[in-house]
Design brief:
Layout lengths: L3 H40 L5 H31 L1 E2 L2 H22 L6 H29 L6 E2 L6
Antiparallel strand pairs: 1-2
């Protein structure tokens, strides 16, 4: 029997789900950007400026993660290939975002038992960023983005 219609149907389903996820990320990212900027402006003068800037940076990095995921979905839809590099970059940004958050917390915990745990976490996150960065560099130097064809509609 010819089952190509099943593959085509699943391909269209995959396309629709990818498009819906991309749209949801776009709307969510736009709302998040608005909230982050509003909270920064509203909080000016109420809290220490450096804390406000760190919160802004943390929020903007989260928005950047959204944009990287949107970009990845766009590439999946346009080229029908899945690449590894955008996910590695998202991992790096997430680790950097966490590094910023815990370095701000570390100042308050100086001299406590929790401080040692935070320093260990900082070391692990820094190592993660390094490994992911080297992996991205190797992929770029090798001329591959880790792509694999994704079966989908051929329209």
């Amino acid at each position: 029997r010819d089952r190509s219609w099943i593959a085509a149907l699943l391909g269209y389903g995959e396309f629709l789900i990818d498009a819906a996820v991309g749209l949801a990320l776009t709307v969510g990212g736009g709302i998040l950007l608005g909230v982050v900027l509003y909270e920064f402006v509203a909080g000016l003068g109420e809290a220490p400026f450096i804390g406000q800037v760190l919160e802004l940076l943390s929020g903007l990095l989260l928005v950047f993660i959204f944009t990287e995921l949107i970009s990845t979905i766009r590439v999946v839809i346009a080229r029908r290939t899945m690449t590894v590099e955008p996910f590695l970059i998202v991992g790096m940004v997430a680790a950097i975002r966490r590094l910023i958050v815990i370095s701000a917390e570390a100042e308050d915990l100086l001299g406590t038992a929790q401080f040692r745990d935070l320093m260990l976490e900082i070391g692990l996150l820094a190592g993660t960023v390094l490994v992911l960065g080297v992996t991205v560099a190797v992929l770029r130097l090798g001329g591959r983005g880790g792509g694999r064809p994704s079966p989908g509609p051929t329209a």
